[in-house]
Amino acid sequence: MSEDNNTFEISRRKTLAALGTIGAASAGAGLGTSAWFSDTESFEDNTITAGELDLKVDWEEHYYDGGAESVEIASNPEEADFFLPALEPQQMSATVNLASRTRVRPIALNFTEGSDLDTFWEETAIEAFPDVESEEPDAGDYDGQQDEIEGDICEYPADLDGVLSHPFRTGGALDDGVTIGEGPNPQTTKPGDSLVSISDVKPGDFGEVTLSFHLCDNPGYVWLTGELTENLENGLTEPEAADPEEDDAMGDEEMEGELLDKILTRMWYDGDCDNQLDELEGELDLMIAVDVSGSIKSDEQTAMMEGINEFVNQLPGNDVQVGSVNFGNNEITGLQGLTDPGDLSVDLTGADFAGNTPMPAAIDIADQAVRNDANARDGAEKAVVVFTDGGPNYQNDQYSAGGYDAPRDETAAFSAESGNNTYDNADTEEATVSVPEMEETGIVADTVRDAGTRIATIFVGGDEQDAMTDDAISMYGTLPEFLGAEVASPGFSFTAAFQDLEDLSTDLVESIVVSEEVFFIGTLGQALERLEQGNGIPLDGNLDTAFDEIFDPGDDADREPFAAGETDCIAMEWWLPINHGNEVQGDSVGFNLGFYTEQARHNDGAGLPPENTSAPNGTTTVEGNNS
User: Fold this and answer.
1) Where do transmembrane segments lie in this chain (predicted)?
2) What is the dihedral of CA 457, 463, 465, 469, to 10 degrees?
3) Following CA atoms 440, 443, 448, 449 in sequence, which dihedral angle do they give, to the nearest 10 degrees?
4) Helices (H), 263-353
């Protein structure tokens, strides 16, 4: 990453030209006036200096290729010490499809005796900047782990030109094959190489890089940027050509590889900059809202009940409390208050499974319960998990359960219009899912998320456009896309088949019960597609707001700039799930990652046209191989 690509300064020419224009206007306004009094004063050596906006970036990278002695493959993923879920993303909506288990299995590892996560993380550290602080380091000085930066980051190091080959960066293999570095994972990058450059990737491998960025001088809006630079098939091996998921069975050299759409990624705000997506720290109060509308058939009802109860069983005890509520047939029923997961069982055998889907009321009442239940805990994180097979359809009515009313008050925060205590946007045909109903549900969900409650949605239907009106399809595309864009917190929308819910319970728990904010889950291809849009993914300087990095515009009122002089970290994790995967043999993917920033003053976060942001950093290459 070069300083040219990491530093964005206000153009002095443009700034001074603007100041000159202001001065000329002021002078013009004074022409023709009369001086009633006269005097002469001298103000000498006046200067106007344009402010600066300087962005500096440092990092630490990890890679696991199966060689770490501190871990071994876990025979039971549900009891694994370290877990990467078997998420198989489905759509650009950042909705994640959990349904396929035949080709995708989780990466689950257990620590060997005497080892722990810190040991494992030391073994997998392969690359850092700064790794050393000596201008002439010895080979033994490198360990792949970032040295703590002392003093003002904006003054360190003084020269960032050619940062990808800076001596403070972890060294790599030289042309003669001599390896620099004596750490557990000797480096394979050469000075100037891409930030991530890994070959011979196999199913079960994963990597992670945390990018630490620092705004110097002035606050600014920041975007994470990127672009795909190559996606190559690189010929075919015999097992690759025979794989049913190989798109290039004829060996067409112009065909693209499959690796891009098989590698999975997560991106999150790494609040403590430790390269790990932290599990829940502290307490969590969680309510489950279960769709019991008429579209869910008898066998699906049983599968959903068993899957939800297995999800509950997998929740960690002590720090987590869970309750549940049902919604369907124009009412909210079956409210169970917060309790230890071992004491809750979701029983759907008595539910009507009929009628419509009052989703906004379910979200409203579930949020009230998670906050006001007799067992609700001050200071605990709050979450609502919605299991549904469809979109909202309901009557213009008020709903009640367990002493809670929805809408809970007469403001527009909990329905489309203020001044009444009912919902306002029901469709005249109760069986349809319409744009007004979806908009009103989004209003309620926004209000709940704004108050600090995380919402996760699990779409368990088969027909992703079931009962949607043509206008709703045009507006939202599919029901999972609607749930991901309008209802769920960023990165917390999932899809799963009814019959797979029970087996996928561990995946759901590992994906939902986290303390740091995930803003993207998807394939590497989906990630790069989003990073290439506009100025990239707009990042939020205040995580207490409900800004959605994937769907909301950059100038959304909930987005705030980053302060100057502080350290903020963004993490990107990638993994190739365990499967037969011969279709990725020999494939390679190259991509750029970087940041773009604009000053906060006089800007609203909308961003300048994309042509001003063509400075993503460091081509990143990943190559696949599997036998």
Assistant:
1) none
2) -120
3) 130
4) 298-314
Give one word for 450, left, alpha or beta, with left for phi > 0 and alpha for psi -120 to 50.
Answer: alpha
List of E strands, 460-507: 493-495
Q: Do residues 87 and 95 touch, judged by C-beta distance below 8 A?
A: no
**Contact predicate 68/124, CB 8 Å:** yes
Q: Which domains does the chain have, with CATH numbers?
A: 54-70+116-276+521-531+557-600+615-624 (no CATH), 284-515 (3.40.50.410)
Contact predicate 146/84, CB 8 Å: no
Contact between residue 352 and residue 328 where contact means Cβ atoms under 8 Å apart = yes
Residue 116 C-alpha from the chain's centroid: 26
Token reading at 624: 């696949």
Q: If you search the block for the tokens 């925060």, which residue do you land on? A: 413
Place of tokens 């003669």: 176
Cα 548 from Cα 84, distance rounded (Å) = 24
pLDDT of 236-261, one tens digit each?
Answer: 675 666 666 666 655 555 567 778 87
CB of 364 closer than 8 Å to CB of 397: no
- Report residue 322's pLDDT band, with 50, 70 and 90 as the boundaries: very high
Query: What one-character-per-residue DSSP string does 87-140 give?
Result: -EE--TTS-EE----SS-B-EEEEEPTT--HHHHHHHHEEEEESS---SS--GG
Of 26-30, 192-196, 249-253, 581-585, the one with minimum mean pLDDT is 26-30
Give the count of beta carbons closer than 10 Å to the beta carbon of residue 74: 18
pLDDT in tens, 90-142: 433 344 444 443 335 668 889 999 999 889 998 888 888 888 766 666 656 77
Q: Report d(CA 219, CA 203) in Å as an integer.
A: 42
Tokens of 291: 């769709």
Any idea what the Cα angle at residue 467 is, between residues 464 and 472, rounded to 5°? Answer: 80
pTM above 0.70, yes or no: yes
**Whether the Cβ atoms of residue 285 and residue 338 lie closer than 8 Å to each other:** yes
- Residue 407: cis peptide before it, omega within 30 degrees of 0: yes
* pLDDT on residue 166: 73
Q: Could you report the per-residue pLDDT of 9-30, keeping only the tens digit for each? A: 322 222 222 222 232 222 323 3
Report the alpha-carbon distance of residue 95 to residue 521 in Å, rounded. Answer: 8
Task: Evaluate whether 456 touches 412 at the Cβ level (below 8 Å).
Answer: no
